[in-house]
Design a protein that fits this description.
The protein is an alpha+beta fold and about 140 residues long. About 30% of the residues lie in helices and about 15% in strands. It has a single domain, classed as Glutaredoxin (3-Layer(aba) Sandwich). It is built from five helices and six strands; from the N terminus they run βαβααααββββ. The strands form two sheets. It has a four-stranded mixed β-sheet with strand order 2-1-3-4, with helices on both faces. A two-stranded antiparallel sheet has the order 5-6. The two termini are about 15 Å apart.
């Protein structure tokens, strides 16, 4: 069983999702997507796995979203994909892929929906929030 996380180490949500994966007993493949951006084909695959449009995957905060005027409806999916390929920071994160599916893990505890072992016990996020996974509602 393989787990892949498209990770940004400067992002608290991404760090929390990675820590939850590790607390579940898994050792994920970590792709720092700013250092190793996805190809066009891989980005298409990620969008399909996530069942998201390119616009839904765009991140606004801390990106050139505003400067590029990406809120304008004139931009097609093809345009938005091209922007993400040129500026990988525009991809929202973390994206986690397991045998149970793929998710944009915002909030980070969304990762529990697709972990093989979501029963990680109490988890303390970086901001101090405590997550208590409910085993009966997961999986």
């Amino acid at each position: 069983m393989s787990i892949t996380i498209y990770h940004h180490p400067d992002c608290g949500t991404s760090r929390n999702a990675l820590a939850m994966i590790r607390q579940s007993g898994e050792v994920p493949d970590i792709i720092e997507y700013l250092k190793t951006p996805p190809s066009r084909e891989r980005l298409d695959t990620l969008l399909r796995l996530l069942n998201m449009s390119p616009r839904q995957l765009l991140r606004r905060k801390g990106t050139p979203y505003e400067a590029l005027g990406l809120d304008d409806a004139k931009w097609t999916d093809e345009h938005l994909i091209a922007f993400m390929l040129q500026h990988p920071i525009l991809m929202n994160r973390p994206i986690v892929i397991t045998s149970k599916g793929a998710r944009l893990c915002r909030p980070s505890e969304t990762v529990l929906e697709i972990l093989p072992n979501p029963n990680i016990g109490p988890f303390i996020k970086e901001d101090g929030e405590v997550i208590f996974p409910k085993p009966s509602t997961l999986g």
